[in-house]
Amino acid sequence: MPKSEVQPEFLELLENHTVIQGRDVSFTCVVNHLQSYKVAWMKYDSKAILAINTHMIAQNPRLSVTHNGHNTWKLHVTNVQPNDSGTYMCQVNTDPMRSQTGYMSVVIPPDIMDLDDSADLLTAKENSDLRLRCRATGTPKPVVTWRREDGRNITLRTEHGVQRVKSYEGEQLHLAGILRQEMGSYLCIASNGVPPTVSKRYYVNVRFKPLIKVSNQLVAAPANSDVVLHCYVESWPKALNTWYRDDGMKLLSDEKHDLAEVPLNDYAYRLKLTISRLNRDDFGSYTCSAENLLGKTEGTIRLQEMHLAKTTSVPIRHNSEFIDRYGSKKQMERKSKHHGFGREGGSLSKNSENMGHATPVLRRNSLNALTDVTVKKSKVSSYPAPAPAPAHSTPTQLSVQNSVMSLQHSRLNCVGLMFAFLVIVISSS
Length: 429
Prior knowledge:
about 425 residues; mainly beta; Immunoglobulin-like; 8-stranded mixed sheet; 7-stranded mixed sheet; about 45% strand
């Protein structure tokens, strides 16, 4: 060809592709000034020519070439497979040959293999060892991680001690000296950056003899009431549970007794015995029993009658407080409402005169002064002075008695004065 002729040139680089297995992909080759030259596609790794222009050379139905009628050629690969990975070349048959290359990487999502020696349901005896195996395939090679489905830690026991971790990386998970608390679902998770991430569930069971705990071994309840007895049970495999009376009679659910089981977790549950309308025959001992292939355990509860105390009424005593004429506070029981105050009630009795207690009262008459002096000489009463009666009330018994006493004292005083006067007159004569 003449040297003055314009040579073909590539306008764009051939791109690289990372393709998930089963997807479709295309390489685009753009050439200007092609003239009478031809575009060819080849697999560089194998040196195999795939197509020239739009004519397919390779006998592969998943490969095809299209041309837009101008300067663009495309190589299409459908349902990409792992062996499609490699370097692809777009070349023009000039002299020397011109070409450009692009790389296709086929990735495969992870997949977990089914192993003959591993199953979805795994069982081990308590304090023994258990190994979980999980093998995954994919491109690139997947990373296998173990986690507990409930989010709890995984317990790893080695000669160096006990370690608790959220996750463990590796195809094998060794559970040494496994305990009942470690039973449950474990997840094997495989990922390699290619979606989707996959997981497999392994359910681990731990076999052990039943265990019974009784929190309240003595229960008291009154007659004619309902009572509930509780037994806490741990067992796997699940135990056969039974309630017995102290005479050995097995209890069944009926109108009198209600038997129930409340699950707490994978291996623990609570037994409930409800006894309705307690009577004298219901009091005594009750035994809860749990039995599986590894053994039998029992727990006993003593039910006794509760005697309720009878309530009695206490009379209420009302106290009144007052201040006597000496300014001291005193309290007196108020038993009835009468005029005046006394030792036995609201009024003074007739015998109160002989007790040597009197209350000074001033009278509005000509003998007030003499009466007041006489009364003051008497023994001071320890009782307070009664409140004055209202103007419209009738005279009380105390007022009448005081009036009579005042009149008698006045007469005696007059006789005494007259006698003294006579003695003086006789003496002077």
